Write the structure tokens for this entry.
Amino acid sequence: MNDIVLSGKLEFLELAELLQLIGNNGSSGVLRFRSPHASNPASVYIEKGNPINASNGSIVGLNALLSLFGWSEGVFEFSSATIPVKKVINKSRMEIILDGLRLMDDGKIEKIGPQNMRVSSSGTTKKLDGITVLKGPLVDYLYIADEEAYHDGDFIVEEGKHGSWMWVVLEGIVEIIKQTPNGPMSIGMVSEGSFVGDIATFLAKEHVRGASAKARGTVQLGVIDSQRLANEFSSLSKEFRELLLSFDKRLKQVSGNTMRIRMNHPLLADLQPGVAPYTFDPSLDDKIQMIRKGKAVVSRPMGQDNVQVVLAELVPGDFMGRIPFLDTGLEPHDGNIWVSEDIDLETVDPMKFNDEYKHLSATFKNIIKHISASISVTVQTAENAFSKDFTKPE
Amino acid sequence: MAIFNLKKREIECKLVYYGPGRCGKTTNLEYIYKTFKKQVSGDMVSINTEGDRTLFFDFLPIGLGKIKGCDVRVQLYTVPGQVKYKSTRKLVLKGVDGIIFVADSLDVRREKNMLSLKDLQQNLKDYGMSIFKIPLILQYNKRDLGEQGIPIMPLDQMEKELNSQLKAPSFAASALSGDGVGKTLSEGLKLTLKHLQKELQWAG
């Protein structure tokens, strides 16, 4: 009876594909699942290609089957047999599959699998005051010159004041705050491995802080050896330095525009004067573009109506496109670009930066990772704020 | 990539309706489901996705012949436009055999059409396909609104803006009344099956 006719890994064949495959074949039997991330195995009972019942822990029936869409890792086994199980699922196969995937994209099915920083809607990442707490990569102690402790409510830096220190969070959570016409607004929460301060911090002697940083609870910080970072930065090629500064600036713009959205004043791309949608040339898809002349606007569709909301404005010297080691979760795939009529672009191969990137110190690489993670987390915050507060009047 | 079902001696292929939100993809499919009831096998699956609906049903084309002695069954789908529905989009676009891109003729949707077409190109690319190679039909929908005095784009403008590089067959339509829906579908089916036959000849 227990005749295993098909087995494999969910990483290779997901539940949706598996159900289609068995469905097309019109088979009957039991589909069993085990995952290192789940405490108990689960089963789906199939009759002539259609799921009729399922169990996952204490849940049974359709809900059990739907919950399995969240399993991204594990093994499955299909035993061909006639099964004496009561039919409780009456929806069609494709309806279950499409609904399962929809629920997962809506964040209504818990994802079970390896931790992923991008998966914040499923509740696997920590949140504080509704803001995703950004965790950084493993701390590199080589560049830490000193350690400092702060107590709950202490300000580490204050917006508008001068200073050239940069810190890495060793323990605890730091809140990043900006002044707005409506009073102070929290723009981000960072924890272990994240940085306080940006690339511009260690470049200018009298750098003006663009935001305040406040300790939430007890915080342990590592003071970064700025001199070493500045030396390393100056040894890089001019183009690579410009690239890094462009994305450092991008983070500030994305934060600023997120604040606008939260204050209910989003900039809409189609209302920006003198720009039109730009399409990335498919043959240059793995290349990035540097703006020589004109301006470009980066937007992302948000809310029910997919309104194009502005997140950043790029000027000559700025870069756009997908950089392998600096993934912002925006253009070319999840964001859109609008350009002015007089735009003049130079195609750059990001692979030439790869070598320089590889030779960077661990701390510098971490700072770059922090920038790209901060941008994508901030964009998510913007999206959440937008769908909550703002609907475009038709 | 069509699926061969040896048990049923059937070839199953996928035709996907793509386009910006509320362009009339679902209206197209609803009209087909209603009008060609005899050629539909099974129920229409309708999933409410934010801002749009995802539809699916099986369709048996008549009069287009068999391929290598097998009957052809076509799965018709629409794709939710919202960025966040990436799992659904992945399932629907994986192994797609033909695309019908429904563009909205409304003046105010001009940019949405362009962005959606660009999005389609990127999504196909993610699954190793090229928008220039896959059987593709363009439909300029909602032509009827022009008669009601609502500003719509002239056909030659849409053709120029959306189709000057693709050079895909294109049709004007008013999905609500059904005008052009059947024509778009049958041309889409013809193109898809022709493409399949050609691929199979290479293989066989």
